[in-house]
Amino acid sequence: MIPESDFVEFYEVGYDEDDPPCTINTYLYLLSCQQYVIACICFSISKPFRRPVYTNPFYLVSLLALIIYQTLLIYRDEEWSRETYALVDLPKNFRYITLGLCLANFIASYAFEKLFIDWFGRFWNSRKQNKMIMERENLVKQIESGEKTVKFVKPEASCALNVVKSIEMAAKE
What we know:
By secondary structure, the protein is mainly alpha-helical. The protein has two domains: 1-119, no CATH class; 129-173, no CATH class. The chain is 66% helix and 0% strand. Helix 4 packs across helix 5. The longest helix has 54 residues, at 92-145. The chain is rod-shaped, with a radius of gyration of 30 Å. The model has no long low-confidence stretch (mean pLDDT 76).
């Protein structure tokens, strides 16, 4: 319990006259709840950062429970949810439209994450690799033409490693 003090005012919980339960608030609540679940699924794309979703049973069960509950909340109008979340009745055809929009949102979000972000990540990494290769090739050309001198490091077990270290040291100069 919070003790009473001079700077904290307590109000009774109820609906303000300025913000009564309405269809807009109900729709936004249902859509935002679905969006949270969609974000959890879309950001759980497994490779290369995570394991697949089905390998974590607790996460999978909680996602399925949330999907089922949110879908039932859109289709059905139960008394407990209506009173707890201050929801109002939506017309039946509007419920179907809402579910269709949620499904379209899921498909678009998942496709964006899976296709575009995956492609862009591969493109960006290959771009960085190509840049490093070009820098090394330019450095080798400069060394071969005599513009840069090479200081050899201690002999290592591998001749290729020795050359790479020499090139990197020359690049730092």
